[in-house]
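[Q] Does anyone have a clean structure-token version of this?
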Amino acid sequence: MKILAVALGGIVGALLRFWCGLFLYNPEASFPFPTFFVNVIGSFLLGWFVIYGVKKTQNNYLILALQTGVIGSFTTFSTFNTEIVLLIEEQLYRTAFLYFAASAITGVLAIYLGMKLGSITRSKAGAEQ
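[A] Here you go.
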């Protein structure tokens, strides 16, 4: 049952990732915006979910489906690394460094903000009960 939960969540996350890539793809851009976008959004969602979603949800299958399945397949660390290497091979060193630094900084910031929002959401939900 756990495998099914992750697999179903993975289908959703992979489709969302695919659609974001289609929507944000620009063949003229040297900066890989689609991967950057999904990694920042995925980091934010994971940060929120770790604080609020996991605490609020008692269903371990739902947690696996959302956290490992959806968010895990939505974000793309391997693609991120590949794009950095390709930028370096094209001698776009400044773009490669900017992409690496911006992804690391905004990813950590997104996790932090997601966790903060999760704390606020959890506090409000607790006050309503």
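[Q] Thanks! Anything notable?
[A] Helices lie at 2-24, 33-56, 60-74, 77-89, 93-128.
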